[in-house]
């Protein structure tokens, strides 16, 4: 045997041994637990305006995954548009039920989960997005809505189902899918009077557009979103409702530079793009305000243009 080949054989054997060790480790460890960061309880002013804003945000950001069409509550359901290789996954009951929902969670515990992905029991929550840059005001609005008397959040007795993550997903949570550290401050509100800055906030903080619209979830950078590979240049491989692959669009100037604000508004609100329907999983932000659309428009026109991806 050629010496180089022998070395290769040894290296390979060693690699396999490591791999086997890793497999045993993952199987034994499962989805990891972490220390739960301690944060101050968010301040809720509980005004009607805060409930309205909270509803606006939950409708746009949480309902897609948590709204159960049978109960018409945020009581959770099986997620059918996650890759089958991840196993069977269920969104949780986040209604006010003490036993089956999150009625027993403190606001600080919910805040930590939303920002970092770590639950009150320390278990890393699967699939749930991390709202790293969500402003304290927006977070308070979401919490206020979750405590309100609106039908979606009333206590519902549907139990949250236990996740059945595949080996692959467990392995990913032991390697690349990690909690996001808390930022030193998220207090600073972004002035809606500065469209580009407000638009950036909407794209990276409030609606997480960049997560789907950059190159790959795996190379996204939650702490420095602009450093995500192919920032807003599209090409991220997602799944449609039939489980078929679909790539996200380039939303830098290369992709939508020639659009009018009205065309962007119709796309975001109704999924009506200038070239035809915009398909799932692009969300429909039906309640997006004019100020939001205009700010997103201004920001997207300002980001570095990336080449079209195919
Ligand atoms: C892409 C889908 C998705 C979106 C969007 C989403 N969630 Fe979740 N959420 C999940 C899944 C899946 C779980 C369960 C994860 C697990 O148990 O590992 C979960 C868990 C939770 C939990 C923990 C409940 C528990 O009992 O462990 C809370 C609270 C929560 N989500 C709130 C929200 C809020 C508020 C929003 C919007 C700001 C939101 N989620 C957006 C998918 C999503
Ligand atoms: C869950 C993933 C996801 C999120 C979140 C998301 N998008 Fe999309 N978006 C897509 C996909 C996938 C497409 C391509 C749809 C198609 O080809 O029919 C798309 C298409 C678009 C288009 C149409 C582009 C074209 O050339 O036709 C625009 C504009 C757009 N998204 C903007 C946004 C903005 C702005 C946000 C945040 C407010 C956002 N998207 C959030 C997945 C997402």
From TrEMBL:
Gene Ontology molecular function: electron transfer activity; heme binding; metal ion binding
Keywords for this protein: Heme, Iron, Metal-binding
Pfam families linked: Cytochrome_CBB3
Top-level lineage group: Bacteria
Every Cytochrome c domain range: 49-150, 194-304
This protein's name: Cytochrome c
Organism name: Hymenobacter polaris
Taxon lineage: Bacteria, Pseudomonadati, Bacteroidota, Cytophagia, Cytophagales
């Amino acid at each position: 045997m050629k010496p180089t080949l022998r070395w290769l054989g040894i290296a390979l054997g060693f690699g396999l041994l490591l791999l086997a060790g890793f497999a045993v480790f993952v199987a034994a460890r499962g989805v990891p637990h972490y220390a739960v960061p301690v944060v101050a309880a968010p301040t809720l002013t509980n005004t009607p305006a805060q409930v309205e804003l909270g509803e606006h945000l939950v409708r746009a950001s949480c309902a897609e995954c948590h709204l159960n069409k049978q109960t018409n509550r945020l009581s959770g359901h099986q997620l059918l548009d996650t890759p089958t290789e991840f196993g069977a996954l269920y969104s949780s009951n986040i209604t006010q039920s003490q036993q089956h929902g999150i009625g027993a969670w403190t606001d600080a515990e919910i805040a930590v989960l939303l920002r970092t992905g770590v639950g009150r029991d320390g278990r890393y929550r699967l699939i749930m997005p991390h709202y790293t840059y969500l402003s304290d005001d927006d977070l308070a609005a979401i919490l206020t809505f979750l405590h309100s008397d609106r039908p979606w959040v009333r206590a519902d007795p549907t139990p949250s189902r236990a996740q059945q993550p595949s080996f692959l997903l467990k392995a990913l949570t032991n390697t690349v899918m990690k909690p996001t550290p808390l930022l030193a401050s998220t207090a600073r509100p972004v002035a809606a009077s500065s469209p580009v800055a407000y638009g950036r906030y909407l794209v990276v903080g409030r609606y997480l557009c960049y997560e789907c619209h950059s190159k790959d979830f795996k190379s996204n950078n939650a702490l420095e979103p602009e450093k995500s590979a192919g920032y807003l240049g599209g090409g991220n491989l997602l799944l449609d409702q039939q489980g078929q692959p679909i790539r996200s669009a380039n939303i830098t100037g290369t992709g939508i530079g020639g659009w009018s604000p009205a065309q962007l508004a119709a796309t975001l609100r109704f999924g009506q793009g200038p070239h035809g329907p915009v398909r799932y999983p692009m969300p429909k932000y039906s309640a997006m305000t004019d100020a939001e659309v205009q700010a997103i428009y201004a920001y997207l026109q300002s980001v570095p243009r990336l080449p079209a991806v195919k």
